[in-house]
Amino acid sequence: MEYLDFELPIKELEEQLNKCELIGKESDVDMTESCKNIEIKLLKTKKEIYKNLTAWQRVQLSRHPNRPYTLDHINSLAGDTFMELHGDRTVKDDKAMVGGLGKIGDQSFMFIGQQKGYNTKTRQYRNFGMSNPEGYRKALRLMKMAEKFNIPVVTLLDTPGAYPGLEAEERGQGEAIARNILEMTRLKTPIITIVIGEGASGGALGIGVGDKVYMMENTWYSVISPESCSSILWRSWEHKEEAAEALKLTAEDMKKQKLIDGIIKEPLGGAHYNREKAFKEVEKTILKAYKELKELTPKELVKQRMEKYANMGVFKG
Questions:
Q1: How far is CA 209 from CA 2, 95, 153, 156, 189, in A?
Q2: Tens digits of per-residue pLDDT, 258-272?
Q3: Which of 7, 88, 252, 284 could cross-link with 137 by S-S, CB 3.0 to 4.6 Å?
Q4: Ordered DSSP codes for 116-139
């Protein structure tokens, strides 16, 4: 397990607990009471730390190297029923954007999401979860297919942003994202969107227009990352904590601003501490949202979705 800087007290206690259990196993000394005391202290420390997380600490948790990624979620939700679909039929297959058909129970869904890598080789292969225009065009192709066969769409957001390279701009990065936003607004099938990690800028928004939008507890969703915001305003990354607070990017902030529909609870310590529990919460949320949306006609669905986004940012002076 990798630990973040603010998790070091937890690391120390977990090491103490391991030593205590080891002594109990390898010697005749009864360590039950000592181990129990350390466990109580560990749980108390965890609760204290994770109850008072700052915005920047949540950003750090959303990027935790052990955190489950899009394919982990899809494989847990759909299992063997998932069939990945490739290519945008124009340029090539973007490995940073994954999508395909899968079933939760008896209901088919079109799953689409950004996929990051878990080591140097796979990070390069997945382009660090940053999609090129063909990734967004692939996503749109799959959404249109889902619409044709009346299959609900589930999008999973986890990206540091769309790829900002020269080749991406030459192939129309801005147009591809804008086209997706337009087409998703009027797609005649339910769209359920979940931020499972980083929800950065247009890169996330390119597959983020949903009838129901949820964020997992330790994720963020914003127009810019705290580091980039800090480097623009202060000409340095040193103020990233300050920027994270000012951006109001946490799930709680987003819910307060009425920009998302709900927050998905994570196990104590984050989704990586108990993956199965995290996957179950996501599954429950998807099924609950779909149950509400499947009653609507395509016309009602589109009308409701358009109204939802038209009302955002409206306030009375």
A1: 33, 21, 11, 11, 12
A2: 999 999 999 999 999
A3: 88
A4: --SSHHHHHHTGGG---HHHHHHH
